[in-house]
């Protein structure tokens, strides 16, 4: 078997396994009284401990037809989706960066973003226990990653947190209500730490556009008008992932746009 293919297969399997653990983190982390380590994996309906063969990422869900083998309660599709997403992200990292320290660092980054996406969707919070250590880890990562200059990472933290803080402050002065949580500010600072300040214009623009479109659809469906609330963290996280994997294409499109604008 080709070496790259072999490493990709291993990375895919490892990503799926980590994705299984991320499901535990997503489920338990928002609850302060729960541990992400104990107790062992169990059915959330009947509380029966799962056998090892009921806990194989993706495969067990398919074999069990999405139901608990003990009480027949429906298992959320979130479980295989998270496992599959982490498997795909892991494989994509190896394909893009090889088996390197860059892949290892960005693997942690992707895992953190995936957890943030789902927790923010369910609870509309972004846990500080992920974003704050993530900022520090991103800064330390810039010291060993050949693709990221430490000054770009540091400025990314300062600019990322500062930009959203300024937006939130002006929105509060204008509407007299909080329009953005502190979690979003810390998340963008973490994104800046891992991707550098150069990523911020795209991440802010892409997340704002996509968030606005989804928000308009939600306003129409929920019929709450300006009272409609949607979590912004998932849009920031997905935009950051897009920049991570398609940075070259994004920069190229920007250069084409800039050249065309200057020519007019």
SSE arrangement:
Elements: H1 3-28, H2 59-63, H3 78-97, H4 101-123, H5 128-141, H6 150-175, H7 182-195, H8 200-222, H9 233-263
pLDDT averaged residue by residue: 88
The H-and-E topology, N to C, reads as HHHHHHHHH
Radius of gyration: 20 Å
- List low-confidence stretches: none
* Count of domain modules: 2
Structural class: mainly alpha
Which descriptor suits the 3D outline? globular
Query: How many distinct helices?
Result: 9
Task: Estimate the helix proportion, in percent.
Answer: 55-70%
The span between the termini is: 53 Å
Overall strand count = 0
What can you see in these coordinates?
- By secondary structure, the protein is mainly α.
- The chain has two domains: about 1-100, no CATH class; about 110-264, no CATH class.
- The protein has nine helices and no strands.
- The protein has helices at about 5-30, 60-65, 80-95, 100-125, 130-140, 150-175, 180-195, 200-220, 235-264.
- The chain is globular.
Throw out a few tags for this protein.
single chain; 264 residues; mainly alpha; 9 helices; 0% strand
Short description:
The chain is mostly helical and 264 residues long.
């Amino acid at each position: 078997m080709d070496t790259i293919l072999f490493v990709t297969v291993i990375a895919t399997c490892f990503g799926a396994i980590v994705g299984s653990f991320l499901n535990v983190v997503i489920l338990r982390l928002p609850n302060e009284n729960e541990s992400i380590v104990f107790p062992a994996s169990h059915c959330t309906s009947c509380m029966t401990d799962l056998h090892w063969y009921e806990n194989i990422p993706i495969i067990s869900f398919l074999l069990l037809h999405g139901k608990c083998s003990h009480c027949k309660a429906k298992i959320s599709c979130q479980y295989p989706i998270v496992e599959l997403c982490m498997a795909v992200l892991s494989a994509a990292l190896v394909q893009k960066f090889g088996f390197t320290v860059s892949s290892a660092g960005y693997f942690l980054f992707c895992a953190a973003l995936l957890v943030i996406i789902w927790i923010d969707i369910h609870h509309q919070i972004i846990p500080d226990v992920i974003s704050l250590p993530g900022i520090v880890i991103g800064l330390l990562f810039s010291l060993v990653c050949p693709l990221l200059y430490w000054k770009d990472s540091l400025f990314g933290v300062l600019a990322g947190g500062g930009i959203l803080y300024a937006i939130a402050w002006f929105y509060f002065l204008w509407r007299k209500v909080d329009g953005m949580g502190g979690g979003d500010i810390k998340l963008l600072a973490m994104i800046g730490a891992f991707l550098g300040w150069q990523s911020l214009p795209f991440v802010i623009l892409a997340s704002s556009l996509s968030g606005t479109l989804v928000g308009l659809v939600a306003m129409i469906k929920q019929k709450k008008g300006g009272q409609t609330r949607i979590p912004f963290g998932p849009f920031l996280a997905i935009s950051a992932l897009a920049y991570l994997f398609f940075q070259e294409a994004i920069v190229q499109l920007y250069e084409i746009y800039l050249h065309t604008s200057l020519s007019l």
